[in-house]
Amino acid sequence: DDDIFSSAFCEDSEKLINVHLFALAAKYYSLSSLGVCTPLEDVLEALKGDNEGATGIKPDEFMNNKKSHEVQMMSELVDSIANYCGIKQVIDIGSGKGYLSSFLSMQYNLKVYGIDSSSSNTNGAHERNRKLKKHWRAYQSRGKENLERQSLEKANEKPVESEINCKTINEELLNNANSLQNQGHMIIQDLVPTCGFAEMATLETSTEAEADLVTGTLSHETKLSEDVLAILNVLPADAVEDFSSLHNCGELCEEEKVQRKMTSLRTKARKSSESNLYFPLTSCITAETELSDIITDLEDCMMVGLHTCGDLAANTLRIFTAKPEIKAVCSVGCCYHLLSEQFENQEECHDQVWGFPMCQYLKDKGWCCGRNARMSACLALDRVAVGQMLPTESLFYRAILQVIIEEIYGVTKSDRHVGKTFSKSSSFIDYVRRSLKKLELDDSKLPDSCIMDYYEKYKHRMNELEAFNMLKVVLAPCIEVLILLDRLCYLKEQENIAWSGLVKLFDPVKSPRCYAVIALKNQSC
After folding, report:
1. Residues 321/494, Cβ–Cβ less than 8 Å
2. Residue 194 is inside which H or E element, if any?
3. Where do the domains of the chain lie?
4. Which of 80, 75, 40 is nearest to 56 (CA)?
5. Read out DSSP for 451-509?
6. Is residue 413 classed as helix, strand or coil in its secondary structure?
7. If DSSP codes are grouped into helix, strand and coil, which group holds residue 223?
8. What region holds the Methyltransferase domain (predicted)?
């Protein structure tokens, strides 16, 4: 196969002479063709065990289509891994605005620490999480009302039986409530974790119990006691009210007293559990980071990262392999162009930890991609394939701008960035002047006529630029393969890893960086 594909290039000039063969070779060496990925369905099936998964609000209620897809797919996988490993704490590295973190905590009742280096992201995550809780409670109430209405409709079919059962429940509940009051503190000390976290009662359990109470379908003392205990289990000691106060409201019938008391307990349980499940933190994560310095109650946990940028994805894997309390990792990287490369500049920096390569195999070969190749790896072939074409005009503007600043200003390298200037510009002249200001270059020495001369000089090469970028897009999956397999090989080289693999987690049209690196440690580690 290598011999066949090599004929895509001229043997003497090494120029590309067969574009079709080049495209076939690129496809052959992509992850989808190499057969190294583990299907997501197989992973979920292997992790499932007795876990049936959670049902509740879909994230598209709160996020755009792309983010909703990413959060829904990744949170289901993370929850499955957490259940399989028997852990409840999750550390979200590079958590950004907290989309994944907040959904994991609210939908799956996981204790999530979201760590991001940007304080503005962390503050934004705090505010967004506060608003999200309000909407979340509204959706929960809507679901609860629907269940109650359905239960009442069923109960109306047997009104006599319902009335008898309801009376029995009221008497039993009062008797059980009084007997439980004296045991309350002991129960809570035994069942609530001492670390200060209170696990949320699931939506299904709470709504079913409330529907049963309203319709009078509970008829057995054991079942009734379990429902009361389920509420007590999630309350801190100071949240348990004196049940004897029920007898001091003579103007209320016994049924109303019971219902008000149960509603009060559920409200406090909900507030107690919701307030401590997601913690946004600000910290810069490196390979040497000690998580226990950031998270004071660190316990057995797993690390996750949804589109961790540049070296952060590599450092996430290094921290995972080095820390015994981290039992699993699920990392989706992005921004390959920001990776640091050990052999790119041929400089000896023995103390630096590099983003690429990670595995010893590529280190021994001194492998280097280079910035241009890493930039190409960020392109989205699947989007182009369905008609979402490259922004050729903005790329063309950017290419001419580079010629201008080199020839007119003598600048070949700058730490400043043009950014998204194209979308704000009304013409090529406007684009150039806005860009020069961003680069802090004096645009007064450059008349409009000179700017347009450059445009006219190169505009006939726009098709050439488009063809070149299309070739880069075709090659993108091959470069991404190299980076992802480097990370997988690094995990395979570790002795404490029970299983590791690459999983296509997202729809690549919705989310081009769609591959997750997953690993689980040996149980003894």
Report:
1. yes
2. none
3. 6-140+275-386+478-521, 392-459
4. 75
5. HHHHHHHHGGGHHHHHHHHHHHHHHHHHHHHHHHHHHHHHHHT-TTEEEEEEEE-S-TT
6. coil
7. helix
8. 66-342
How many CB atoms within 10 Å of residue 86? 9
Specify whether the CB–CB gap between 256 and 90 falls below 8 A. Answer: no
Spacing of C-alpha 269 from chain mean position:
27
CA distances from 274 to 109, 189, 200, 300, 344 (A): 9, 20, 7, 21, 48
Task: Tell me if residue 525 falls in helix, strand or coil.
Answer: coil
Cα dist from 333 to 151, 283, 336, 484, whole Å: 47, 19, 8, 9
> How many of the other CB atoms lie within 10 Å of CB of 244?
10
| 444-502 per-position pLDDT tens digit | 989 999 999 999 999 999 999 999 999 999 999 999 999 999 999 999 999 999 999 99
Would you list the DSSP string of 108-119?
A: H--EEEEEES-H
How sure is the predictor about 200, in pLDDT bands with cuts at 50, 70 and 90? very low
Half-sphere exposure of 178 (CA within 13 A, CB side): 9
Q: What is the secondary structure of 146-166 as a DSSP string?
A: HHHHHHHHHHTTSHHHHHHHH
DSSP-derived 3-state class of residue 438 = helix
Residues 514-523 have pLDDT tens digits of 999 999 999 8
Specify the pairing of strand 301-309 against strand 111-116.
unpaired
Cis check for the bond before 357: say yes or no (omega within 30 of 0): yes
User: What gap in Å lies between CA 91 and CA 301, rounded to an integer?
Assistant: 7
Question: Burial of 364 by CB count in 10 Å (0-12 exposed, 13-18 middle, 19+ buried)?
Answer: exposed
* Topology given in CATH for the domain delimited by 6-140+275-386+478-521: Rossmann fold (3.40.50)
Element (H, E) at 332: strand 326-334
User: What are the DSSP calls for 377-398, one per residue?
Assistant: HTS-HHHHHTT----HHHHHHH
Specify the DSSP class assigned to residue 310.
T
For helices 311-322 and 462-492, the axis angle rounded to 10 degrees is 0
- The C-alpha R_g of the chain, in whole angstroms, comes to 30
Q: What is the pTM of this model?
A: 0.70
